[in-house]
């Protein structure tokens, strides 16, 4: 479990830094294009905090938490008693709860039902694609192992 926590902390740092860089780039480009004073956070989100700087710090912290959860939750794939489908469902439920919860806070999606539904649909579609790719890879690995175990050349 220590290895997963270590990876989680590394992912936290990478996600927080990436979120900070992306927000700075968006703000810089928007301001350079004439949107003076643009800050890439919703006004409703900023209103939750005493200053825009505190909102920005929490924003970066939340990006880090998303990365941490996505990384640490990969431990579920090492629980051998669970099948791949159940592992994927658990991973999806936990990561989506965290990610959608944070996204709702950051973007105030509860105020915009169409955006909320679109975000959920995009997140679900992403996980379906990830599941299909991983399942195909798993099947190919199993087929390769089976071929090796029945190949007389490999038994020597």
Describe the fold and architecture.
The protein is an all-alpha fold and 156 residues long. The protein has one domain. Helix 1 runs antiparallel to helix 3 and helix 4 runs antiparallel to helix 5 (113-150). The chain has helices at 2-32, 43-46, 52-72, 84-107, 113-150. The model has no long low-confidence stretch (mean pLDDT 89). The protein has 5 helices and no strands. The radius of gyration is 21 Å and the shape is elongated. It is 76% helix and 0% strand.
How are the secondary structure elements laid out?
Layout: H1 2-32, H2 43-46, H3 52-72, H4 84-107, H5 113-150
Into which percentage range does the β-strand content fall? under 5%
What characteristic shape results from the CA principal axes?
Answer: elongated
Structural class of the secondary elements?
mainly alpha
Rg estimate, integer Å: 21 Å
Please tally the β strands and state the result: 0
Distance between the termini: 38 Å
Task: Give me a quick take on this structure.
It contains five helices and no strands. It is an all-alpha fold and 156 residues long.
Can you give keywords for this protein?
156 residues, mainly alpha, 5 helices
């Amino acid at each position: 479990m220590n290895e997963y926590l270590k990876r989680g902390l590394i992912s936290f740092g990478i996600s927080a830094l990436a979120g900070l860089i992306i927000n700075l780039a968006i703000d810089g480009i928007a301001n350079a294009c004439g949107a003076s004073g643009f800050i890439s956070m919703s006004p409703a989100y900023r209103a939750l905090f005493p200053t825009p700087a505190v909102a920005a710090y929490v924003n970066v912290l939340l990006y880090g938490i998303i990365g941490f959860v996505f990384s640490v939750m990969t431990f579920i794939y090492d629980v051998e008693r669970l099948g791949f489908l159940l592992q994927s469902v658990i991973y999806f439920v936990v990561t989506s709860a965290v990610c959608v919860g944070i996204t709702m806070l950051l973007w105030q999606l509860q105020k915009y039902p169409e955006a909320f539904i679109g975000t959920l649909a995009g997140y679900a579609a992403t996980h379906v694609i990830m599941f299909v790719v991983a399942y195909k890879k798993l099947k190919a690995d199993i087929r390769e192992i089976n071929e090796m175990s029945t190949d007389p050349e490999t038994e020597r």
